[in-house]
Amino acid sequence: MKKYFLILIYLCIASTMLVAQEVVGASGGSSNGNDGSVSYSVGNVAYTVENSGVARATAGVHQYYEISMVTSIPEAEKINLSVYPNPTSDNLILSVPGISKAQYSVYSLDGKLLLQKMLTSETVEVQLSDKISATYLLKVTQNGKELKTFKIIKK
Predict the structure, then answer these.
(1) Sign of CA dihedral 39, 42, 47, 53
(2) Quick check: helix, strand or coil at residue 40?
(3) CA torsion angle for 70, 72, 74, 79 (degrees, to 10)?
(4) Where are the alpha helices (DSSP H) in 53-153?
(5) How far apart are CA 119 and CA 106, in angstroms?
(6) Picking from 63-72, 78-87, 102-111, 135-144, which range would have the lowest pLDDT averaged per residue?
(7) What H or E segment, with its residue span, contains residue 7?
(8) CB 108 within 8 A of CB 134
(9) Contact indicator for 47, 60 with CB cutoff of 8 Å
(10) How far apart are CA 121 and CA 73, in angstroms?
(11) Residues 88/134, Cβ–Cβ less than 8 Å
(12) Mean pLDDT for the chain?
């Protein structure tokens, strides 16, 4: 009897730790047919992120790729800087033809400086292999002036 009581208590405690997928969507619905049914949602407006030391899971969010460049000064439009491949799963190549005495910095989206190095040649490999999958900002500066900022997506 004591054994069954302990199993019942264990099941009660374990059931409080169950987590189901929950979505707060902007729209959605369901459809039924002769062969089955389907439910769908559009536009998740709330989600959770679970992090461990090794992996990151974003529950309820469909990931997308976005490639963009943000420029800070009009003169920078004439400068031909490029970064590839974007999105990346490992490292990036930063191409800065004709630029000298410049540096690059990698920031998280909350503004934390993660990496900063001087540009030693016109083509530099930016090490992102140790970073988690997320969106980062790569900023190129010269003599204290921001030349270009790239939005980088790490897969």
Answers:
(1) positive
(2) strand
(3) -70
(4) none
(5) 13
(6) 63-72
(7) helix 2-16
(8) yes
(9) yes
(10) 23
(11) no
(12) 74
Contacts with 71 (C-beta within 8 Å, 6 or more apart), sequence order: 77, 148, 149
Strand partners, 22: none
Decide: 102 and 94 in contact? Cβ < 8 Å: no
DSSP reduced 3-state for 67: coil
d(CA 92, CA 102): 17
Q: Report the C-alpha gap between 107 and 116 in whole angstroms.
A: 9
What's the token pair of residue 88? Answer: 């990346």
Phi, then psi, of 124 in degrees rounded to 5:
-130, 140
Residue with tokens 């503004």: 111
How many angstroms separate the CA atoms of 129 and 88, rounded?
A: 9
- Identify which has the larger pLDDT, 33 or 22: 33
Closest CA to 26 of 60, 64, 67: 60
pLDDT of 117 reads 92
C-alpha gyration radius of the chain: 24
Residue in the block written with tokens 């491949």: 85
**Single pTM value for the model:** 0.52
